[in-house]
Amino acid sequence: MKALITGATSGIGKAIAQEMSRRGISLILTGRNEEALLRMQETLPVHTEIIALDLAENQAPFTLYEFCRDKHVDILVNNAGFGVFGKFSETALQEELELLQVNVRALHILTKLFLRDFKKRNFGKILNVASSAGFLTGPLFSSYYASKNYVVRLSLAIAEELRREKSRVTISILCPGPVDTGFNDRAGVQFRVKALTPEAVAKEAVFGLLTGKLLIIPGLMMRVGVAASKLVPEKLLSRILYHVQAAKQPEHK
Question: CDD domains from the xrefs (predicted)?
Answer without folding.
Answer: SDR_c
